[in-house]
Amino acid sequence: MEILYREIKEDDILTQKKEILELFKLLFDEDKKKEKISEMYYENMSKFCKDGSAILLGAFCKNVLVGFHWAYEINWGGQKRIHSYFIAVNESYQNMSVGTKLQKMLEKIAISREIYIIDTNCEKENKQSYRYHLKQGFEVESYRMIKKLEDRGAEMIIQGEKVILRALEKNDADLLLDIINDPDTENMLGGSSYPVSYDMQCEWIENQKNDDTVFRTIIALNDERKTGIGTIILSNIDMKNGTAEVHVKLAVANNRGKGYGTDAVNTIVKYAFNEMRLNCIYAEILEYNQPSIKLFEKCGFKKEGTLCSRIYKGGKYINLMSFSKVKGI
Predict the structure, then answer these.
(1) Which residue of 78, 121, 201, 279 has the fewest CB atoms within a 10 Å radius of its CB?
(2) Nearest to 22 by CA among 72, 84, 68
């Protein structure tokens, strides 16, 4: 399903009135006032579109508006900003990253105007909106949420062919929850996990720091760097002997089978050998986890042996398969 992203024009305000009103209704809770409030904001949108003071970005599917982002330029204490006013997406398209793509369009416009902060008003009680903005890279500033665009270029990343490896961020909480609370993923891993809430996950992220024994990174696609698709970690790092254990997890089934996991493993192994001066990276995999075994074999890992009855899972003891890759071999 092809979606076209472009600026909303005056003609669109007229021809897409029905769609705009329906999108506004999604933003308000009180049924009795939805019609009146939506009409009021529609009139304001029309007015500000005509005088050019609004930044109106739309997502169109077969020439029908399915989402919009309404923003405008402000001066906040002498600092130029873009204020994100409203973002609304048709319920049938909310799992298609429409909001994220509209947000990226807005960021490009901001940078073209040499504006490097986008802010919005968002109450923490509005959990859906609050979590959405955190996921998009916003942070809390008093009662406002802001996104500092200049920070994006400064972040350290490890570049692969298909993916990048970046630092763990607060807006990765949803990704980590998807991994931890997925029973299929848990069944393929050696450790144990327990149900985790969103607040617990955020608190855990705040307390995490890379050190000499663990190196955590988020796997993201080259063109969607803020949206993680998995994790890859080096643990039990032994700087004296030059060894570390690698763990990789991809969050969603449709991210698998595309070479992302292979590229992530190759990328972190290369970084470990060339930058961290490690000499051997190893992995311990459940004997029935054939997808992981094939992945590591594809990355040049060699089977070293079997750790018998090492993991208790599903009411029985499971063997672990030990794989490793030594630098230069």
Answers:
(1) 78
(2) 68
